[in-house]
Amino acid sequence: MDEQNAVFMIERLYIKDASFESPNAPKSFLMSEAPTVDVGLNTATAPVEGADDLMEVVLTVTVNAKSGEHTYFAIEVQQAGLFRMQHIPEEHLPVLLGVHCPTILFPYAREAVADMVGRGGFQPLHLHPVNFEALYQQAQTEQQHMTQ
Predict the structure, then answer these.
(1) CA-based, 20 to 30 A from 56: which of 79, 92, 94, 134?
(2) What is the pLDDT of residues 69-92, one digit of tens each?
């Protein structure tokens, strides 16, 4: 493969799925305790059928705000992107798909979460930046330990 002709390009960014639930509203607006906020991240990749050089990467962000048994809100956002990858050496694909693509997608997912929380009537929630390279390295290390 000719690395000088390598192409890595964003074709499209889009929300694939999004949901917001506030099961205890309006009671949750009257609660005085601060909720515990749990954030989960997951990345899935798949080639686009009929297009050899397109990959879909979906970053799923889940946010649950609870106080005890009471849920303030629950959010799931699937921020997706189509990425054109041509002449990329096979050994570079895992890092592109596991680090660079989620890094590109995260600010859009973060914005969608903040918007939904505000539209749901709650104080703005701005997720902290995520170091996807560190998460990738951690996953690689865990996978190596499991195979030993």
Answers:
(1) 134
(2) 899 999 999 999 999 999 999 999
Report the CATH number that the domain containing residue 96 is assigned in CATH.
Answer: 3.10.420.10
Q: Look up residue 13 and give its amino acid.
A: L
Q: Is residue 38 part of a domain?
A: yes
- Asked if 43 and 59 count as a contact pair (C-beta separation under 8 A), the reply is yes
- Our CA angle for 117, 106, 67, nearest 5°, is 35
Find the domain containing 42 and state its range.
Answer: 7-147
Mapping DSSP onto H, E and C, the string for 58-105 reads EEEEEEEEEECCEEEEEEEEEEEEEEEEECCCHHHHHHHHHHHHHHHH
Number of domains in the chain: 1
Tens digit of pLDDT for each residue in 89-130?
A: 999 999 999 999 999 999 999 999 999 999 999 988 999 999
Identify the burial level of 92 via C-beta atoms within 10 angstroms of its C-beta, where 0-12 means exposed, 13-18 middle and 19 or more buried.
middle
pLDDT score recorded for residue 146: 80
Domain assignment of residue 2, yes or no: no
**Degrees to nearest 5, angle at CA 74 with 71 and 76:** 165
